[in-house]
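[step 3/7] inverse_fold.run input=structure_tokens len=648
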């Protein structure tokens, strides 16, 4: 018996003492992603033919027979014999061709004899606006547009284009500056195997076709193949699209082994990954399709969390959690998981891609015959099926619930040694460092809970932030406006305001319409409360109500409480002088006269409204009616509240 081992780099944190169970999330019924239709490449203007593999390179292909289940090698690096590309607009091989519409194109055919597929490493890639690079294989869908190396990364690996010869095409709009193009191909990976493409290297005959067990079909759709760029070429592992605890989220998280993907860049880096989905037979023990035609997710992934270690040395649970940079097919299941520690004897199942072949299934139980790190690894003995190189990273699941409890590190199981155990990093231990990611709930909250705006602003934009990006369908939300001291229809347009947060965005906004009037008034308030129309996302409990204060900004030059506009228009009944607070100089403010502040609506332009010879101020002060002519004011009948008036 042998064991796979790789040096552990990270230690697991102690289990916190509680368990979480997350069910699977089935894909969208009927949303089966079809491979893209192949488009014929443009005719190349130049060709480079690499020499056949040397004897030393041929010898390196024997690495594929290594017992290490995570390093099933499928391809070798090959350097370019010369500088290949376009630097400052000048091509090192071939020439630009001008198209009928004035655009320009540079097209190179690159051949590596006997290759089944080719991946390209761009050491430089920078194009002007509108510039695109596309890569064409024999059967696989063209890849593109490629426009630049991702920020912070040293190079960009293309996806695998199948065939001995591939075509690289760079196109520019007619008005794009050719001299700004920087494109350099440093090396390629010569794929001498595509997943499942070579019968001599196919999985052992004791493996079981997963398609023969329809009860597992939904879960199995979330298990995929993983193309990795390693130290000497390309490798193959198995991975699983997993669910998270967010009922509103649809983030494409992927679980695999750390010895398959150990970081973001460089050897075994997440940036260079490509994912194969639905590589399965057409019926039980039926025919598998060409791996070049199955759905793929390209563009790499983000490395979120992980732990090194091995079942031989300990040091960690050998897991990696990734987030795809591109959306996988919508029909794929997000497989659930369980963090309960499991006892010996528990029935378990694994779905995997042995030797990069089509999907297989194995059944067994947890055992404890020779497991030096049982606190970090599950030991499994198979009763049906087995695992092989290329199976690493595959999910170990509870047979009863189809939930993940681990990912394959390695072990001695094979068709030749069916009773040798395998070892899986325990998901309950991996979860201690992935918990904050997998349990994060998408929450919407107001960027600010209050603001002040002038009524003449027209509207107020209110921003709402998400804790994660919105899923492909985005989110629909509602802002419900409620009056404080402001009045709907007079100070703002009332009701509910529907708004959305677009797919892939982490924020959205809604606008509160304000009504601008000409009347001098105190500051007024209203509130806007956000809610989710479909229950998702969750709404922040502390930042869900926005208070808006509407400030009056009408000009009142004389300070009489009537805006200049209302004085000029006679809004309160009389046109008055906007430059004089007391237009008739009777001692009473224009606003007080027209609004009846002292009990009478007098004429602000006439000091003696009733024309009886006693001005309005005096009559009000001594208690007579300024609107009815009197012979004389009678001081003896003054009332107490009128004493507030100053003496004339």
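[step 3/7] decode complete -> sequence:
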């Amino acid at each position: 018996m042998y064991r796979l081992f790789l040096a552990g780099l990270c230690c697991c944190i102690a289990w916190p003492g509680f368990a979480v169970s997350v069910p699977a999330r089935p894909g969208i019924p009927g949303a089966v992603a079809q491979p893209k239709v192949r488009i014929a490449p443009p005719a190349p203007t130049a060709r480079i033919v690499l020499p056949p593999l040397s004897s030393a390179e041929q010898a390196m292909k024997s690495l594929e027979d290594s017992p290490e289940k995570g390093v099933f090698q499928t391809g070798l690096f090959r350097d370019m014999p010369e500088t290949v590309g376009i630097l400052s607009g000048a091509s090192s091989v071939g020439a630009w061709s001008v198209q009928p519409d004035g655009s320009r194109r540079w097209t190179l055919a690159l051949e590596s004899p006997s290759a089944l597929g080719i991946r390209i490493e761009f050491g430089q890639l920078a194009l002007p606006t509108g510039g695109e690079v596309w890569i064409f294989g024999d059967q696989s869908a063209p890849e593109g547009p490629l426009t630049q190396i991702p920020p912070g990364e040293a190079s960009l690996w293309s996806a695998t284009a199948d065939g001995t010869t591939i075509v690289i095409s760079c196109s520019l709009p007619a008005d794009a500056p050719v001299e700004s193009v920087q494109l350099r191909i440093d090396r390629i990976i010569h794929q001498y195997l595509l997943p499942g493409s070579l019968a001599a290297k196919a999985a052992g005959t004791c493996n079981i076709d997963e398609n023969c067990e329809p009860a597992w079909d939904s879960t199995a759709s979330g298990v995929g193949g993983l193309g990795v760029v390693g130290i000497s070429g390309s490798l193959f592992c198995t991975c699983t699209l997993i669910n998270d605890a967010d009922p509103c989220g649809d983030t494409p998280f992927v679980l695999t082994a750390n010895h398959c993907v150990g970081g973001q860049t460089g050897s075994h880096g997440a940036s260079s990954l490509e994912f194969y989905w639905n590589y399965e037979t057409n019926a039980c023990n039926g025919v598998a399709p060409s791996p070049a035609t199955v759905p793929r997710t390209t563009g790499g992934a983000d490395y979120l969390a992980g732990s090194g270690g091995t079942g031989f040395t300990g040091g960690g649970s050998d897991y990696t959690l990734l987030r795809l940079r591109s959306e996988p097919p919508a029909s794929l299941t997000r497989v659930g998981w369980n963090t309960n520690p499991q006892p010996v004897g528990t029935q378990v199942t694994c779905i995997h891609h042995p030797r990069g072949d089509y999907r297989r299934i194995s059944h067994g139980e947890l055992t404890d015959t020779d497991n030096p790190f049982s606190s970090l690894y599950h030991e499994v003995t198979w009763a049906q099926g087995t695992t092989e190189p290329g199976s690493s990273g595959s999910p170990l699941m509870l047979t009863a619930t189809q939930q993940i409890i681990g990912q394959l590190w390695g072990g001695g199981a094979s068709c030749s040694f069916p009773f040798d155990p395998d070892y899986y990093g325990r998901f309950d231990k991996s979860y201690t460092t992935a918990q904050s990611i997998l349990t994060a709930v998408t929450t919407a909250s107001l960027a600010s809970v209050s603001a002040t705006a002038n009524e003449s602003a027209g509207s107020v934009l209110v921003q709402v932030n998400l804790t994660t990006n919105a899923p492909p369908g985005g989110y629909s939300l509602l802002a419900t406006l409620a009056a404080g001291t402001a009045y709907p229809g007079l100070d703002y347009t009332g009701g509910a305001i529907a708004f959305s947060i677009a797919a892939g965005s982490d924020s959205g906004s809604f606008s509160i319409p304000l009504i601008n009037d000409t009347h001098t008034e105190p500051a007024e308030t209203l509130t806007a409360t956000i809610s989710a129309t479909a229950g998702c996302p969750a709404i922040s409990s502390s930042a869900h109500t926005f208070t808006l204060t509407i400030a009056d900004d009408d000009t009142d030059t004389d300070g009489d409480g009537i805006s200049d506009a209302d004085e000029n228009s006679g809004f309160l009944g009389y046109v008055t002088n906007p430059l004089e607070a007391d237009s008739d100089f009777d001692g009473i403010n224009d606003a007080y006269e027209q609004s009846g502040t002292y009990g009478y609506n007098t004429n602000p332009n006439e000091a003696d409204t009733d024309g009886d010879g006693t001005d309005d101020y005096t009559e009000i002060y001594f208690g007579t009616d300024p609107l009815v002519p009197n012979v004389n004011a009678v001081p003896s009948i003054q009332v107490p509240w009128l004493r507030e008036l100053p003496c004339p």
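[step 4/7] annotate
Residues 443-551 form a domain with the Immunoglobulin-like fold (CATH 2.60.40.2030).
DSSP finds six helices and 37 strands in the chain.
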